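B., you asked whether I could sanity-check this one before it goes into the benchmark set. Here's the sequence:
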Amino acid sequence: MLPKLVVHADWSTNTNKRWMCKAILHQNIYKILPPEPVDTKNIIYSSLREANDWGVIFGFDFPIGIPKYYADQASIHRFLDILPEFGLGIWSDFYKVAETPEEISIHRPFYPRKCINKGDVNQKHLVNGIGVNDIKALLRRCELGVGKRNDACSLFWTLGGNQVGKAAISGWREILVPAINLLNNELVIWPFDAQLDQMNEFKTAMIVETYPGDACVQIGIGAPGKGWSKRKAIDRLNKMHAIKQFAHKIDVDLKMVESELSQGFGNSAIGEDKFDALVGLLGMLSVIMGYSDDGLPNDDAIKSVEGWIFGQNI
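And here's what the prediction gave me:
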């Protein structure tokens, strides 16, 4: 049975840049609603009410999981077991981003809080502080470069335009832990609690990790940075025909977002955020509706501690 509502949120540490797109099931066809700002405190509860207990799948654009080598160093066997403990007890400093190399440790892995002078901080400090051989050991398997894909940035690194560390901190504290507390056994966090073919077994909600850049590849419009940019309205506009073709292929109704699509989501700074919210949603729908697979490797470490990007194939 398909979920009544599918929600994709493009995440940012800047709350003004958090935008989401929803697809609601109506007569066995998903209708896409126009992008809207994310109400972080109420997104889970309000979406569940909107679905009227028919089930919701949420996609969030922040890391959900930790690298295997870090987990081994910290004696963590299951990400979801330790997640509610972060920020408490021996993990009380976990979310406090380290200011100096000396402050980095297994229990305080995020670094650096800021950089005053270029060269004062580098990833070697993170490698030494956590006790691994190189920065690749602090990447999850889904973050490793394969083929034309470059390595992602370690989720513990909190400096620069491509860092995801602060997004992970905010996402775990503001979304995952409150959702676990609110729903308890009614919540499935993929792929730790269940696999996609067990989706019908979940009672209320499922949360998956997404990555809009990879979703662009999943829906056939090509990787951003390879001849086009998500930040440019003209480039987004040039992708709209292909997006509409993909939506038609998987039988998704885009009528309610037609005006946004015809403008490439406009020239404002939030245009990229709206675009990411939509392409991430289409990538999710393709998997949920069975047009593509979830990409999940058969790897115990991925299913217990690392997690996976929904729909990413290697």
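One thing to flag: The CA atoms of residues 81 and 305 lie 10 Å apart. Otherwise nothing jumped out at me.
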